[in-house]
Design goal:
Elements: E1 7-10, H1 16-27, E2 31-36, H2 40-52, E3 56-61, H3 67-80, E4 86-89, H4 105-130, E5 139-144, H5 148-151, H6 158-178, E6 183-190, H7 197-200, H8 206-209, H9 222-233, E7 244-247
Helix pairs in contact: 1-2, 1-9, 4-6
Bound molecules: NADP nicotinamide-adenine-dinucleotide phosphate.
NADP nicotinamide-adenine-dinucleotide phosphate binds near residues 16 and 146.
Protein name: NAD(P)-dependent dehydrogenase (Short-subunit alcohol dehydrogenase family)
Family: Belongs to the short-chain dehydrogenases/reductases (SDR) family.
Keywords: Oxidoreductase
Length: about 250
């Protein structure tokens, strides 16, 4: 593929917030690697949309929660593009509502493997390719946290909230570590956004049911989150690093 345009890897780009980021990034001139874990048809639909609109994208399968998945993501990325300029650590999972004293160790292992270790491992691979210290030309990383990192999600999924808290500390530290190497690292905290994630957590109506608890009285859309992600990726945010942006309707 042409190397003229910057290349963006979006983990979990097949659905929800990630899919909106992929479409908006392609419309802004990025070549997009649309990562997915299982839903190849959804990823291919995003790629088809982007190509249909004149943009450039490929679908890349791989579970960010496993070393094998990470290896296949980055080998496919390197085989397709000869550069990497941006990473959006978006892939994330929730569990069904449970108290902390009910959560299994298997659930904790998987939650932290995907949401925390997967994001840190992708950031490592991105820094190896983008840092001027490693001969790269710099770049930007945006980590998708959650208002849960601040609110704690008591009685629903404190484990999930804790994974997002870890991502927030990681963002602060990595931003400072690579600030002089041409890489900016920021995070977005979505509030309640209308995507499939609520159904995957056993609460398909959660976004609508929670509307009255949101100051704006409505859930957000994936595109509203994607707009903030694109800002943080862009040169308009050239002096912004280590920042957290709430996209939560005031929640
Ligand atoms: P979603 O609709 O459930 O979509 C999840 C996406 O992540 C899908 O593309 C899925 O791929 C992918 N994915 C899941 N596990 C993966 C893995 N192990 N490896 C690679 N990809 C994986 O989720 P969403 O609501 O858009 O959430 C995106 C991010 O925003 C998450 O980090 C979430 O925690 C965060 N967030 C969401 C909300 C909200 O209200 N929606 C609020 C705050 C934060 P497949 O299609 O292959 O399954």
């Amino acid at each position: 593929m042409t190397t003229l345009h910057p290349v963006l890897l979006v983990t979990g780009g097949s659905r929800g917030i990630g899919a909106s980021v992929c479409r908006l990034a392609a419309a802004s001139g990025w070549q997009v690697a649309v990562n997915y874990a299982a839903n190849a048809a959804a990823a291919e639909a995003v790629v088809d949309d982007i190509r249909g609109a004149g943009g450039s994208a490929v679908a890349i399968e791989g579970d960010v929660g496993t070393e094998a998945g990470l290896a296949s993501i980055f080998s496919a990325l390197d085989a397709t593009f000869s550069r990497l300029d941006g990473l959006v650590n978006n892939a994330g999972i929730v569990g069904h509502p449970a108290r902390v004293d009910e959560i299994s160790v298997e659930r904790l292992d998987r939650m932290f493997a995907v949401n925390v270790i997967g994001s840190i491992r992708c950031a490592q691979e991105a820094v190896r390719r983008m840092s001027t210290r490693h001969g790269g030309r710099g770049g930007a990383i945006v980590n998708i946290s959650s208002m849960a990192a601040v609110l704690g999600s008591a009685g629903q999924y404190v484990d999930y909230a804790a994974t997002k808290g870890a991502i927030e500390s990681f963002t602060t530290g990595l931003a400072r570590e690579v600030a002089a190497e041409g890489i900016r690292v920021n995070l977005v905290r979505p509030g309640i956004i209308d995507t499939d994630i609520h159904a995957s957590g056993g609460l398909p109506d959660r976004a609508r049911d929670m509307a009255t608890a949101i100051p704006m009285q409505r859930p957000g859309t994936p595109d509203e989150v994607a707009q903030s992600v694109l800002y943080l990726l862009s040169d308009a945010a050239s002096y912004v690093t280590g920042a957290a942006l709430n996209v939560s309707g005031g929640r």
